[in-house]
Amino acid sequence: MRIAVTGSIATDHLMTFPGRFADQLVADQLHTVSLSFLVDNLDIRRGGVGPNICFGMGQLGGNPILVGAAGYDFDEYRAWLDRHGVDTGSVRISEVLHTARFVCTTDKDHNQIGSFYTGAMSEARQIELKAVADRVGGLDLVLIGADDPEAMLRHTEECKTRSIPFAADFSQQIARMAGDEIRTLLDGATYLFSNEYEKGLIESKTGWTDEEILGRVGHRVTTLGSRGVRIERAGEESIEVGCAEEEAKVDPTGVGDAFRAGFLTGLSWGVSLERAAQVGCMLATLVIETLGTQEYTLRRANFMERFTKAYGDEAAAEVQAHLA
To answer: 249 — phi, psi (to 5°)?
Structure first.
């Protein structure tokens, strides 16, 4: 399968302040705050839902097609993704804007002050999926992840017009979208991804019940945190897959993206939905054990050993044939 992943491309600039923000705030001067914090360190991480998902697919041996917009400062990030099996040939490079950036400072009490600069992400709405399909010889599935809202709507409409199967995955953007936009984005999706909280928010904003949404999508894939994932399809018994045992819980950031990477790769292999979900859960476990969304290394022997322990010999035999 040729799978394109659309979504934000960004870098995270994370700093730590050794004191407490609250100690620097003067109650009767909050209307004119002017503060500067001397921080201890700066951690720059590669991020964005599009690259996070594509990186995971590349680790599993796939060749995902990243679709999004980045700035003229993208060269180093592009080289990293190219080296890890990601097709970056359809990334639009802005001539005037930097790659999107999240800048955040955390104090000793774990309070945070952050800003998100959208930058080149706003140009994602100018990308035509037809050009992507023509370049790679057609598309079998497009995941439409959190991105510039106009881009998400345009990609969805183009998939519908051109009869390209698509997966709806609003994640962070669901909070700012209105009900009519969410209805447009999910109606007709082959797969609808969300976590449990987002599931309820989707139903609240659209005014559609769970049953009505199941009637409008092919599959509803809901991640359940430490309990794994549930896959539902109208008129069929749901599939539930648990998480593989984790060796440490270091950082949950990017776990959902890793699940999607494993699940989509499983689909491209042609294995069952249950097997695809198991691959996704195993990859998500590797990410939660690592600081950073693209800092883990998939060692195939170790991956299969842990996969076998979690899901059994039969499941492992099916996955091993593709992973090898």
So the answer is: -115, 100
